């Protein structure tokens, strides 16, 4: 596998355009006075005027004087990250109707505290680095405080991490305490916290408080999708009367056709609330309905006990293996093994037998009973093809198939620590999935685990090392990335691609420092390792331009314009040609 972090050519071109007047003749500067040059549709750049708003300091529009935090917006603008600029403008307009964005977002700025490293650390998800950057900036700039928006985001992230950790540990009291201390982070804006709070209240024995929380979510969440997700969460923490009231309340609210289908499924899962047809189906196969809820994690303890009694009464292998998987997913290996073995003792046929055998093999692996796992796998491999992976010592095919299909959520679920054999062997695949999702810090941790899993297998170790190096490089940790390559036997063709990625990051950093000679040297090294990268070629062309090598820049921009037809290349060609001819359009 290979992976290279994406780069935005338009942002680089915009950066050079904003700096271009430094090398323009005076006549050219005059033509640019008080004009806005379009960088792309919907975005303009004021090249000559620096202003933070109206002269009186008020905000335009009907919310004049409102305190609108634009620090995140300006952080994106300093990097010419147009997509995120657009997204943040839409977010702020939704929060502050009538607000208009500042007109100087892309204007040259006076010297100020450089907060770009702070935001870069935040976007990598590296909170310790955010703390270090904040401390450094405070020491260098007395009186400076971090942007309010960043402070809010970091607090929200830390609270979410704390809630998730407490939920995983079953520390329900800690979640309730967090909610009491930070109620603003337990709203629909942070709906996962809200759901975890309701679950904590329910698990702590306060079902009434849990359903007050669910009810608040239903009343305040603005979209039907969030309300339906809340109902699904409530199904897992069943209080029949309270849940029935919420379902009846939702029935009166408007929904799209797709949402209506989803709501009907929730009614059916609730049992009997979906109309006469659903009631008849429940009467005909109560066990089937219960097993459906069990598979979705929506059965309470009483229902699970009823399923167990019914399974024994009927000697139902389907129900037995379903209970086995319920315990397996809860990491209760002994209980899972008992139910899987019971299902096999009842001589199941077809799919139920294969699923029970798979479950028992995986349970034996979890219990360290490797020989029994292999013996059972050999006996069932003909009917349960997945078990051939156990005999061959391979990983999980389900996760690989999900990755190939682009179902990244399924890959992450299958390879989550403790979930089964695919987690025990699939951390490299998990890492590549996280790279696809631009979650580089998490990917690095997965690849580190994959290196441990690889043992003496050189192919698996090479793949994991390649991923780890790319993940480090994507976080801007080029030295660590290079150290990974040097410490592990990465295949030569993969090593070259990794080195090219590291050098590309170094070239971009040199360009941002204004060291155009170094940028050109590094870009030349990259071209010797891998085919041309469009973004790096644009950096190289602008470096030629900024080095006053206008004829070479003209040639480079002309080729980029011919090959890619981009507006950035055409604009660069126009400026370089003008310098060569010493005339301006």
Record the SSE blueprint.
Layout: H1 9-19, H2 26-32, E1 36-40, E2 43-46, H3 71-78, H4 82-95, H5 116-123, H6 127-140, H7 148-169, H8 172-181, H9 191-203, H10 207-220, H11 224-236, H12 240-251, H13 257-270, H14 276-284, H15 286-295, H16 301-314, H17 317-329, H18 333-345, H19 350-366, H20 370-380, H21 388-392, H22 397-404, H23 408-414, H24 421-425, H25 427-436, H26 440-454, H27 458-474, H28 478-487, H29 492-513, H30 516-529, H31 534-546, H32 550-564, H33 567-581
Antiparallel strand pairs: 1-2
Helix pairs in contact: 1-31, 1-33, 3-4, 5-6, 7-8, 7-9, 8-9, 9-10, 9-11, 10-11, 10-12, 11-12, 11-13, 14-15, 15-16, 15-17, 16-17, 17-18, 17-19, 18-19, 19-20, 22-23, 25-26, 25-27, 26-27, 27-28, 27-29, 28-29, 29-30, 30-31, 31-32, 31-33, 32-33
Write up what this structure looks like.
This protein is mainly α and 585 residues long. Helices cover 69% and strands 2% of the residues. It has 33 helices and two strands. It has helices spanning 9-19, 26-32, 71-78, 82-95, 116-123, 127-140, 148-169, 172-181, 191-203, 207-220, 224-236, 240-251, 257-270, 276-284, 286-295, 301-314, 317-329, 333-345, 350-366, 370-380, 388-392, 397-404, 408-414, 421-425, 427-436, 440-454, 458-474, 478-487, 492-513, 516-529, 534-546, 550-564, 567-581; strands spanning 36-40, 43-46. Strands 1-2 form a two-stranded antiparallel ribbon. Helix 14 (276-284) crosses helix 15.
